[in-house]
Every structure is written in structure tokens, then in C-alpha cells.
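Input chain follows. Return C-alpha cells only.
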Amino acid sequence: MGIETTSDGVSPSGTTPESEGSISQEETDAMMGPGGSVSQDEIDALMGFGGTAGDPSQEADSRVPERDSGAAPPLPGTSGQSRVASLDLLNQDRITRSRMPTMEVLNDRFARSFRVSLFNYLRVNADILPISAQMQRYGEYIGKIALPSYFVMVSMAPLRGSMLFVMDPYLCYAVIEAFFGGNGKLEPKIEGRDFSVIEQRVFNKIIEHAVADFSAAWEPIVKFRMKVLRADMKAQFVSIAAGPETIVGSAFDIEMDRWKGHFYICFPYNAVEPFREQLVSGVAADQSEMDPTWKTVLHKDVQNAQVDVSVLLAMKDIPLHQARDLQVGDVITFEHTHNAMVYVENILIGEGDYGVSHNHYATRLTEYRSLNEEDILKVLQFSREGVDNAE
């Protein structure tokens, strides 16, 4: 039995050709009901919101979210939406790769002065080129230095800690050849070689010149009072920091006629941390200018310092024979005084009134005495000699 269409294009079923692929709301509700067997993805495909129903590739594409190509992959055991990285606040790397322009300027000053010192001592022209000045771990820095090298530990007063001056084996050989008049034709024997006492004396003289030149180069930042502590050919005996600690290390390439070697200088980063702004800013401030960071730290430390305070209420001079006859329970009479003398670490700072405050004996400072350097030095001298200065 055929189906006839009318002239207006409507079929006997009452649907138009354009609406043959559509689904009514009642049919949708029936399929989504408890007895329906059509999934939501198939409904979306039939309604035109997704790919063709039954196409596995398009169904999979519709379920996989897009991921930025530069994003980090998810951690094992976590979902794709969770990107959590562990953070240990107690073991963070403090090393920064930022340049330190001021440090480079200071190394250039040192290189020029050290070049003159080497010429005056060895009578050999030396070309000194600063190679690097950066912060890194102490263990990594020492591990790159060839052995046997000559390590010298130097104090950094007035700063805390010590610094290290290192002459690598090739520079040691170059200094020996230049000092004793070698021609440089023989190949240096580096491995398994120890330095003699005479050679170490020559190295110590070179280090003394280096220490003096380094102090002069750093004078715009801080005035060092450096002193050589000890020297050795093994780094573990002159260690200035732990392996993971951060140090500021500098390397210099030294070439003298036919010889060439490296010179190293390193010191803990904590020692020069108050001057970090000056080292990074590229401006070597004058020593007369006070660093605000250093001022703040010094003010805080002074406020937290503990000192001994004593108050002298009265005093009386008595003859020696009377003092010799004093017994337990004797009473010494003296005139009433209105002012009490206040001492801090045995240094008289002023006078005040004494009395009672909140059921405690107390003194109120009414007159302050300005101190001078002579008073402080006098008290320090008495303290060394074991004399109690009460005047």
C-alpha cells in the first residue's frame, strides 16, 4: 500500500519532510525515563550538540578536556584537574642567579691591584681576568677546584665567618717557576705532588698580597681587618661552610708569560647579606653612607642586648683600722643623700632619685651623663685587670 502526498507537501502522518529527523518532547522524556535505553551522549548527538551517535572517536573527543601544551602533567595518583606540587619550606634553595654588578666592579679593582703586587714580588707581568662572581653551594664550588690546591682560611673581621683564598695547582706551579727562575719548558707534575715548606712560604707571601688588595678593593663597602688563620692542601681542613650552604665565589684567570692558572676567592653569603642591595644595585656606596638595612639590624640587636645595671645609694670613707675591726652586725652611719649614681656595666651614666614604686625599690634617672671614649676604655682596662671601678 503506497503513501500519497498532497500538494502542500504534508504526509498523511502529519509531518513535514524537514521535521522527519526531529524528536518530540514526549519521545525524549520516554527515552530518558527509567525504562529508556538511550544515553545522554546519544541524545546530544541526535539533537545536534555533539558528534554522530555511535562514532567512538568523536565520543572520546567530546569527553577529553583540552589541555594546554605548556601545562605540567598531573602527579601520579592524582586526577588530571589536580596539579599539586610538594613544597618544603625548611629546605628551600636560597641561591639566586641574579647578577651582582657591584661584585664585578670590586673584582676588577682587586685584579688591577693584585697584578701590581705580583709584578713587585715575582718581577713577572701577569694578566688577571675576572671570570665569574656568583652565588652557589659551597660543596659544588669546592668540587670544581683541581687538587692539590693551596687553601688559605682568612678571617673577615668585623664580619662574622671566614673566607677562603685558593691557588689551583697550575697557578702554584706558575708561581714556583716564576719565583725560582724556571724556563717553563718542563710539563708540571700535578698529581701526587706535595708542596715543600719553601714553596708554601712563597704561596703565603702571595696570599698576603692578595688579602691586602682584597681589603683595599672592598673599602667602599666595608673596612676589613683580615687575618690569615691557617693553610692546607685539603679543603676539608679549612672549610668555611657546610656543603649545602650558599657562598659568594669569584674566579680569576691568571696568565704569566708561559704559565697559566686560576685563583679563587669565596666567602659565606650570610656574612655579606646586609650589603646585598649594594652588591646587586651596581653602586658601590661611600663608607660614610650608612646602610639602612644594617642600621635596622644593629638597632634591633642593641635593643635586645642584656646589660648589668647597678645603683650606688651612698658611700663613706673610713680608716683602715676601723674597717679591720668591723664585725658582723656592725652599723655604718652616713649622711642622707638625695641622688643615687646609676652604673651600666660599671660605667657611670647619670644620677637619679631612689624610692619605692609598686612595692619595689626603684630609681628614676634625672640627670644623664654623656659618655666619651676615654671612660669606656678606662672601664675596659679595669675589667681586664680584675679591678672594680666604682668611681
